[in-house]
Please model this.
Amino acid sequence: LVRRLVNDVDLIYHLASAHLDVSIADEDYRRVNVGATLSLLEAAQQAGVPRFVHCSSVGVIGDVKNPPADEASDCHPTNIYERTKLEGEIAALAFSRQTDFPVVVVRPAWVYGSRCPRTEKLLRMITKKRFLFFGRGQNFRHPVYISDAIKGLELAANANGVNGEIFIIAGNRPVQVSELVKVISTELGVHSPKLHLPISLGLMAGYMFEIIFKLVGKNPPFSRRSLDFFRKHNAYDIGKAKRLLDYHPQVDLQTGIQKTVQSIR
Model:
């Protein structure tokens, strides 16, 4: 099926992955994020596809201890999604070197916007006053609005001399979680949440949810991985994308949140 699908195709963007599902086994993450990536690469190479853009994730870097991180920063993934995305990225670049097949790797930061279930869930929780801070909310997130993320992918697909390169695609600046929530609350016209709970309590609750929902075969509404939003520093330098791709994000956080809220309404 994959071999048939890639015939007469000029360009492949590979964004499919196992991502937020905490109920599936590690080997299933590896089968999708590594094995299926190689299957698609092999089919594309045999079909003579001119360019393959592999969508990885800034998550492969893990918690950024000394922000900002860039493409040369050491990778320390902390969960099965991040580990298998890194393995898939390494496999894709190795395949490119071995076969001279043109592969470019893009690592998007926290992509947000309308029709994104995670974005809409966050806005819904803040609107209904169900959002809780775990920790002080001073860790960094690096948002990139959907149109800027798409532009970054398109530039990676069309730039010359970038085969085998890795590019981080993010917004102009990272923000602390507390600032992010405040911007969202202001645009929604609600009071910014004030309640801060200990991280340890969140980890305990996430573990309990995982056990309970695994018994019924469903994804929990909250898991230990959900705490990454409050624990990890995600802040990145996009200088390489600016230099080699002429990538310049156009949508600041306030405008992006405004566009998202208007679209949902």
In short: The longest strand covers residues 103-108. Residues 14 and 83 are 17 Å apart (CA to CA).
